[in-house]
Amino acid sequence: MTFDSSPAGGATRYDGNLTVPATTNIGALGAGERGLAIRSGSTALTALVNQTITVRFSRAVSNLSFSIVDLDRDANFWDRVTCNPVPTSSNNRPTTVAGVGDAGLEIPGSGPFRYTGGTTGIDDTSNAGNVQLVYAGGASFTQLQLVYWNAGSPGPQGILLSDFTFTARGC
Question: In this structure, are residues 119 and 74 in contact, taking their beta carbons and an 8 Å threshold?
Fold first, then answer.
């Protein structure tokens, strides 16, 4: 499994992008647990200024599941994520995370994954900004794309990806 990052619309990657930071338990992952950082220094009120993360598998996979961790909002940031393909379900999601991971309007039952809690931010060890994505059964695939952007003010911000599980198809 490999990860590639492609900025668009003037987006910039921030330090530590596509690395595993030393900080543990972000998003209540657990003691000693870490995720892969997706970090951006860009902001825009539009998804056109973004960073596309392509996840490639060396062979087709099915029954993929993983978590997006630390979707949150504060005075200077507001995370957004879309997925292609859109997951078949999003489990273990607190009521503070809305959207289905598509590029639709930000209305109930549609739009990018986003934090809908207060604007004062959440503690880094809270799971209030986590969502587990599930691609159950169905057709297998060899890649997926996540589009991440910060819909707030300029400044560094990021999310984590964690807990990937999948079934690798025959050689």
Answer: yes
Q: Which residues have CB under 8 Å from 129's CB, separation 6+? A: 27, 69, 70, 71, 72, 79, 94, 96, 97, 115, 117, 122
Here the tokens at position 129 are: 């900004």
The span from the CA of 74 to the CA of 35, in Å, is 21
Residue 77's beta-bridge partner residues? 74
- Which tens digits make up the pLDDT trace of 43-77? 666 678 889 999 999 999 999 999 999 999 887 78
Quick check: 100 and 86 in contact, CB under 8 A? yes
Q: What is the pLDDT of residues 10-24, one digit of tens each?
A: 888 888 899 999 999
The neighbour count for residue 115, using CB atoms within 10 Å, is 25
Enter the tokens of residue 153. Answer: 């003010």
Is the C-alpha dihedral spanning 152, 102, 129, 107 positive or negative?
A: positive
- Give the CA radius of gyration of the chain: 15
Q: Against a cut of 0.85, is the pTM above it?
A: yes
Between CA 148 and CA 35 the distance in angstroms is 16
